[in-house]
Amino acid sequence: MKMSNIIKLGNRKTSTTRKSFSDINLNKKEAPINRLQMKDIITTHSQSNTEDLAESLYESIQSEIQSIFNRASIDFEILPSISNLSKLANDLADLIQRHDIDIMEIFLKHRDDSYLLSHSVNVTFMAAIVGSWLNYNKSELTRIIIAAMLHDIGMLKFKDIADLPRRLSKDEKAALSDHVHYSKEFAERIDGIDSIIPDTVYSHHKKYTGNEKTLSSHAQIIGIADVFEAMTHPRPYKDVMEPHAAICSIIEDLRGDFDSSIIKAFVDNVGIYPVSSWVRLNTKEIALVIDTNSGFPINPKVKVILDENHQRLQNSRIVDLSKQSELAIENLLDNQTQNALRSRLLVE
Q1: Are 306 and 17 in contact (CB under 8 A)?
Q2: pTM
Q3: CB atoms within 10 A of CB 17
Q4: Torsional sign, CA 222, 228, 234, 235
Q5: What are the DSSP E strand ranges found in 85-219?
Q6: Domains of the chain, first to last
């Protein structure tokens, strides 16, 4: 199904409500995805504390993965402690399950020069949040997190190729694909590790065939997080894609590679129009996306700020587009226009 068809289905007018993405039949066997029910009521103060905790945990996981990489670069036989990995995985799973975290802000902010390190940490965080969107329990989340932390350790065997500042040749790509064998070998030697983790690490690049026994959902979660991270973070040989463009690309080009429930979780929770993006409505007014609507990815909550002439409204208003039958997003503004608007409104 093309992205344009998905948007047409989602924008089809009814008397009072929009069509949920969960109603779109990507795969008839899949049930709709429900967002994880949060346990805490978040106040502004506690949200700030939660963001600090998330940043601190990001740094701790980054430090652990850096340490693993440093030791393995010297001797691939030097293995991490499962207790260290489990502690960090439990902390991240607990944080995600207990608090409403803006994971996308953390995920997109970290675009470090050290590709392999930042990629591994970002994939770990994204895989964890995707697992929570799918309502996985804490035990499952910790296994996914540990597997994500280790999924690219085998890249150290091919670091000269991985660090090349250009697109890889066919032969180089073929050589690099062998990293999963080394990642699995490394993971399965860790004393006390759950047996599902090495298999998850090995399978994260495999395409979905419709047979759950062939490819676990854990591997698919890490796989889609890996793809999304690569699309939305810089590489020397390509431009960065905005999150909405990456989501559209996954829907249109890679839909057959992943189970539809995982793609639905991405679309429902990341949204086609990410928070803080600027959009033009069908009234020609300009609005800022302030929140996504789970199940209604093309109908977020927006704050209408500018009129059709791009003049600031005396009274801005907040609109939940999932509850409006007449108001809709016409298009996402291009990056240059969005940046100009942000600069102008900061001055005003």
Answers
A1: no
A2: 0.74
A3: 13
A4: positive
A5: none
A6: 3-26+273-347 (no CATH), 44-240 (1.10.3210.10)
